[in-house]
């Protein structure tokens, strides 16, 4: 795991900057100025876990940097933090698109915590007792679903359908296959049962299940990242 710090040329290597603070914490850090290329081959093959944009008080420059980061295919899904002073913080807006912020001057443990939290929010994994896709987390052992750590109440069959599709991410299943594998071969419902449950999942989970895709004429799948 490595962290990319983006900022104005000449300020990135200052003693109390994010680069030195993170290196002192043992992090692997690389730097880029606001004008460097962000689509180098090594970044495509090994993108950073998180990007920290050292805006300080230059919030407009930070917004421009964020647009360039999102335009680079290798960085489009990487979480981005804005590092700002209290003065700069007052100029940030939730609609800017940053995943989080960190206050300057830095408190090292806080900066590290915010980086790890941003990484966790966007991470995906499939473990024996827990599935995670971005903000959505499915605890198989506890039979619980959360979005950004907030619990979401699902019925038994909604949970079972979500779990099955997530465990088989990338594969398309017909409505009949889903009835057999989620509801059981002895269930006598119709394909409309699947459609209703998919609609309920989308209503309850919102953007957290944007990857739940309807494949016209076939069925449903959870898209791979």
Structure report:
The protein is α/β, with parallel strands linked by helices. It folds into 2 domains: 2-122, Response regulator (Rossmann fold), CATH 3.40.50; 125-222, Arc Repressor Mutant, subunit A (Orthogonal Bundle), CATH 1.10.10. The protein contains 8 helices and 13 strands. It has helices at residues 18-24, 41-45, 59-71, 86-89, 108-122, 156-167, 175-183, 191-205; strands at residues 2-7, 28-33, 50-56, 80-84, 100-103, 124-126, 130-133, 136-139, 144-147, 150-152, 173-174, 212-215, 219-222. The strands form 3 sheets. The chain has a 5-stranded parallel sheet, sandwiched between helices. Strands 6-7-8-9-10 form a 5-stranded antiparallel sheet. It has a 3-stranded antiparallel sheet with strand order 11-13-12. Helix 6 crosses helix 7 (175-183) and helix 7 (175-183) packs across helix 8 (191-205). It is elongated.
Distance between the termini: 18 Å
Radius of gyration: 21 Å
Low-confidence stretches: none
CATH topology term of the largest domain? Rossmann fold
- Report the top-level CATH class of the largest domain: Alpha Beta
Count of separate structural domains: 2
Shape: elongated
CATH superfamily of the largest domain: Response regulator
Round the mean pLDDT to the nearest integer and report it: 88
The side-by-side strand order for the widest beta sheet comes to 2-1-3-4-5
């Amino acid at each position: 795991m490595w962290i990319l710090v983006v900022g104005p040329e000449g300020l990135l290597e200052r003693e109390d900057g994010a680069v030195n603070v993170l290196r002192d914490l043992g992090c692997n850090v690389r730097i880029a100025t606001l004008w460097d290329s962000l689509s180098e081959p090594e970044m495509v093959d090994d993108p950073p876990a998180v990007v920290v944009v050292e805006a300080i008080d230059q919030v407009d420059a930070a917004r421009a940097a964020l647009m360039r980061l999102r335009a680079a295919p290798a960085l489009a899904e990487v979480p981005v933090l804005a590092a700002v002073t209290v003065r700069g913080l007052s100029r940030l807006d939730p609609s800017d698109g940053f995943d989080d912020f960190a206050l300057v001057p830095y408190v090292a443990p806080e900066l590290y915590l915010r980086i790890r939290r941003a990484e966790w929010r966007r991470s995906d994994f499939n473990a024996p007792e827990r599935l995670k896709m971005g903000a959505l987390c499915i605890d198989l052992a506890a039979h619980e679903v959360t979005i950004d750590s907030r619990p979401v109440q699902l019925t038994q069959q909604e949970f079972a359908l979500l779990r099955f599709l997530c465990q088989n991410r990338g594969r398309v299943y017909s409505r009949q296959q889903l009835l057999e594998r989620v509801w059981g071969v002895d269930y006598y419902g119709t394909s409309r049962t699947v459609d209703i449950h998919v609609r309920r999942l989308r209503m309850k989970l919102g953007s957290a299940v944007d990857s739940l895709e309807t494949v016209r004429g076939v069925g449903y799948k959870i898209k791979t990242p």
